[in-house]
Amino acid sequence: PDFDHVSIDGVVTSSLGASRIDTARVTVAEGMVLKAHIVAFNDDNEVMETRVETKQGGILGMSRVISDGDFAFYGISAGETEVELYADGKLVLIMKATVTPQSQ
């Protein structure tokens, strides 16, 4: 079966900043964390092994948390990068990522 779609839900953000995530973009403020449950599905609607990577860890950090499919993104320094999503080892989605400066 081939990749069909990505589900992003269970999003938890800090109240101090305009963090958000969807299939096109990840936005996190410096020093803030965004957690999301991200799962890739094939065309039979079955879960695929999902891996998420950030291109520049000095701007946006990312790690697996809590359980399968849960990822935390944390703003390290203001700037832009990309987040890559892999399903069963194949690159299926590239999201733009922005870390915004923390409000003073």
Descriptive report:
This protein has 104 residues and is mainly β. The strands form 2 sheets. Strands 1, 4, 5, 7 and 8 form a 5-stranded antiparallel beta sheet that branches. The protein has a 5-stranded mixed beta sheet with strand order 2-3-10-9-6, with no helix packed on it. The mean pLDDT is 92. It has strands at 3-13, 20-21, 25-29, 33-42, 47-48, 50-54, 60-64, 70-75, 79-87, 90-100. It has no helices and 10 strands. The chain is 0% helix and 63% strand.
> What sort of overall outline do the alpha carbons produce when their principal axes are compared?
elongated
Counting helices, strands and paired strands, the structural category is mainly beta
Helix percentage: under 10%
Q: How confident overall, as mean pLDDT?
A: 92
Secondary structure: elements and pairs:
Elements: E1 3-13, E2 20-21, E3 25-29, E4 33-42, E5 47-48, E6 50-54, E7 60-64, E8 70-75, E9 79-87, E10 90-100
Parallel strand pairs: 3-10
Antiparallel strand pairs: 1-4, 2-3, 4-5, 4-8, 6-9, 7-8, 9-10
Properties at a glance:
elongated, about 100 residues, mainly beta, five-stranded mixed β-sheet, about 0% helix
Quick overview:
The protein contains no helices and ten strands.
